Amino acid sequence: MVDRTVAAMPVAGPQASGTVREERAAKEPRAAKPLAQDPPGDQVVVGAVLQQPPGFQPRPRLLARLNWAGRGVSVLTGWQGVGKTQTAAAYARAKQAAGWRLVAWVNAGNTASLLGGLAAVVDAAGLSDGFGQDAPDPGRAVRRWLEADGDRCLLVFDDAEDPDMLRPFIPAGGKAGVLITSTRRSVASLGTSVPVEVFTADEALALLGGRTGLTDEKGAAALAAELGHLPMALTLAATIIAEQHLEYKTYLKRLRNLPVEEHLTPGQEQPYSRGVARAVLLSLEAVRAADHAGMCTRVMEIMAMLLGARVNRELLHAAGLAGMLASGGEAVAAAAVDRALTRLAEWSLLTFSVDGQTIIAHRLVTRIVRDELVHQERLTTACRAAASVLQARAAALAGSHDRQAARDIPEQVAALLNNAPRPESETDEELAGLLLRLRFFALYHLIELGESAAQAVAVGQQLTADFERVLGRDHPATLSSRNSLAAAYQLAGQPAAAIPLFEVTLATQERVLGPDHLDTLTSRHNLGVAYQLAGRPAEAIPLFEQTLAIREQVLGADHPKTLSSRGSLAAAYRDAGRVAEALQLFELTLEAREQVLGANHPDTLTSRENLAAAYREAGRVAEAIPLVEQTLAAREQLLGANHPDTLTSRENLAAAYREAGRVAEAIPLIEQTLAAREQLLGADHRKTLAARNNLATVYRHSGRPAEAIPLYERNLTACERLLGASHFKTLSTRKSLASAYREAGQPEKAGSGGTRSPLPELVDQVEGEHVQAAAESREPVLVGLVLTWMFRNLQPWHEDRRRRVNRTGGGRVFVYSGTIRPLERIA
Question: In whole angstroms, what is the distance from residue 623 CA to residue 303 CA?
Fold first, then answer.
């Protein structure tokens, strides 16, 4: 596996030269907080669940209907401003207070926010590996998991627009609760419709009286009628009346006298009434009157430009420091930004998530702010300011380990593009360049995250086409975009589409920049990576050799990129069966990294583990063991005993011990790893199942089948529930369990499970009738091809598709060895 990474375009402008970062080895997925089975108080809360706003009016009948519906899918439908999201948030907060295992909030307004939200759920729930060999697809991973194990789990899809976009991610069964909010009647077809209406007269009077302290029920009733009993508008009105100590009739007079045509363009298609528009505009005027520095005004403009995306405090803090929020372009400290946000929340123009980090503005409010910008012919200026802030934020996050912040970037870019001026209107060249660069940053972060290959491909295809149209096929920015598209195809498991793009990019750079240019070297390296991943090491080797020779000459023998080239060439030699040459390069790379980076640098640890893997493949396990022992000790000291990389090293050491016949030393390591994975990831996580299978297999081959049986039984139950009875891993586990029964002297329990080959069922599922015919033909060549395909693609309980043989136990064993990477990490 590799991390298909590209570098972002330089921020100087769309015509600036772009560089591409090389392909690098994938990092071990982080151990996200698991969903604990016991105690129920251990929760996972994901997404921006809204805080309860001041003066919130509970709607017990709606909540009772949702509670009655319980598991399954409920859809809150109604006009904008009737309180669908607030009702959903109240329901989510109640489930969080009740100790539900999962409370997840996903913005479903567009593809970027939907997929980003589902990816956050995957991370938090420890599902980041998914099941089987599907391409990265967080939405379906969440769906499968909730269908299998969704008890006391709530998934909220807020502001859904397109039922067809949402449908593939909704659990088809199980015990999970799913709650959807939408203004679209068509979305109600996804579940049980729960209509949300405007306030009743009593509810409106309760809100107004409670917030203002006034007892004038007649005046309150007249105001409620003027605003159509719409909860959002009534909340804004009550806030101004309370803040400015007004009477209802005074506010009503101001409301009716406000000249809407001075703020909004008549005749525009607007999803709100003039009364609602007046209420919002009155609140904005009140804020602006006290906003001498203009901070509140500019915050609301940025919120309007990012309508539909998650906006966190850090982005607005960055805007303040960049001089985008204060008059005169002065930098503003984070504390001052926070005070402005608090003020806007006090005026009910903003609200916050439960953790206080996400800022939320109602769609109606931000839509009116945007329409006002259009009327004032300031939309381009506001868009340019938001784009500049977002570009700086996206660049700062390049290479960051903050995955949620990186997920925000594609979502925010998509929102900005949706709210920007249309190309035929007032867009200027500067803004057009900013938007192009932002789209490139969005693609960069999608590829770095590796969570939505299809989305990355779609973004990359359109972006590359636009660069070719605007700048030409040979422009550096176009080449960088094309390289990124190739990386997206590679991420999607489409090497046939990736390799031609890498080839074209390299040929163009050799012609335009020269064969020794640094960008050309990077492209040559990336093409070599693509060839190697496609199983074509013979074509990768000359590319790596050429790149290494030039880098040694230009950069020096110990430069990080030179070391990366040497490690990649070593891996290609190893894959091509040139073990002696591979070992020599692995040894040189490790020696150089120890000298340049230090013995415990992450890249040095990777090189040490790669050399150990090469020694094991060469049958020199005695030389491999000290290297893995040293790596494990370093990772335990630096990362902790239960860090994912530490667990991987521990499993690699156990595998080496087994190969050396030191099974007694291997078993405690595997037992320790299984206990850690169960604690960190949960009993049914893919890595936990793999560790449990490894331990059971070692027990069997150590003559301890009775201890293996409960482990196999537990895995079989999990596989049948999570993957289905006919999945290859389920069949494999059933077969292993039957063998353990027989070895333990319990043949009556084995039944036919251990004698029936899973091959016919397997090939029928994955390869269709042609492979099935090959299997049934009994022709040795055809059957051999099928078996080869199986072992390359569907190996049971084995994480890096590398087969290991237990040379002492007498059987073929698949073990976890995830740190043994085909390619070196790129510095």
Answer: 59
What DSSP character marks residue 328? Answer: G
- Whether residue 101 contacts residue 40, with contact meaning beta carbons closer than 8 Å, is answered with yes
| Encoded tokens for 347 | 């005026």
Helix (H) or strand (E) holding 69: helix 60-69
Nearest to 84 by CA among 191, 250, 196, 185: 196
Q: Tokens 């926070």 correspond to what residue?
A: 338
The tally of CA atoms less than 13 A away on the side-chain side of residue 721 is 17
Query: Greatest CA span in the chain, whole angstroms?
Result: 92
Q: Are 569 and 541 in contact (CB under 8 A)?
A: yes
**Which DSSP category does 135 fall into?**
P
Q: CA of 297: how far to CAs of 108, 284, 290, 304, in Å?
A: 27, 8, 10, 11
Q: 289: buried, middle or exposed (CB in 10 Å: 19+, 13-18, 0-12)?
A: exposed
pTM for the structure as a whole: 0.77
Give pLDDT tens digits for 136-168. 478 888 888 888 888 999 999 999 999 999 999
Residues 6+ apart with CB under 8 A from 512: 474
Q: 805 with 812: CB under 8 angstroms?
A: yes
Cα 51 to Cα 193, 333, 336, 353, 723, distances in angstroms: 25, 25, 22, 5, 37
Tokens of 431: 């803004």
**pLDDT reported for residue 672:** 94
pLDDT, tens digit (0-9, with 9 covering 90-100), for 61-88: 888 888 877 678 999 999 989 999 999 9
Alpha carbons within 13 angstroms on the beta-carbon side of residue 564 total 21
Q: Using an 8 Å Cβ cutoff, are 442 and 414 in contact?
A: yes
**Residues 641-655 pLDDT 10s:** 888 889 999 999 999
Q: Which residue has tokens 């938090």? A: 124
Q: Are 667 and 702 in contact (CB under 8 A)?
A: yes
Cα separation values, 546 from 464, 517, 528, 743, 772, Å: 28, 13, 10, 55, 44
Q: What is the CA 545 to chain-centroid distance, rounded?
A: 35
- In angstroms and rounded to an integer, the radius of gyration of the C-alpha atoms of the chain is 30
Q: Half-sphere exposure (CA, 13 Å, Cβ side) for 418?
A: 17
How far is 437 from 460, CA to CA, in rounded Å? 12
H/E stretch holding 286: helix 274-289
Question: Rounded CA gap, 660 and 20, in Å?
Answer: 43
Rounded to whole angstroms, the Cα distance separating 676 from 414 reads 40
**What does the alpha-carbon distance between residue 481 and residue 469 come to, in Å, rounded to a whole number?**
12
811: left (phi over 0), alpha (psi -120 to 50) or beta: beta
The SS3 assignment for 110 reads coil
Length of the chain measured in residues: 827
In which residue are the tokens 């040979």 written? 474
Phi, psi of 695 (to 5 degrees): -65, -45
Peptide bond into 53 cis (omega under 30): no
Secondary structure element (H or E) that encloses residue 607, with its range? helix 602-617
- The model's pLDDT over 678-709, given as tens digits with 9 standing for 90+, comes to 877 778 888 889 999 999 999 999 999 999 99
Alpha-carbon distances, residue 156 vs 33, 56, 90, 176, 195 (angstroms): 20, 20, 12, 11, 16
How many CB atoms are located within 10 Å of the residue 97 CB? 9
How many whole angstroms separate alpha carbon 341 and alpha carbon 311? 12
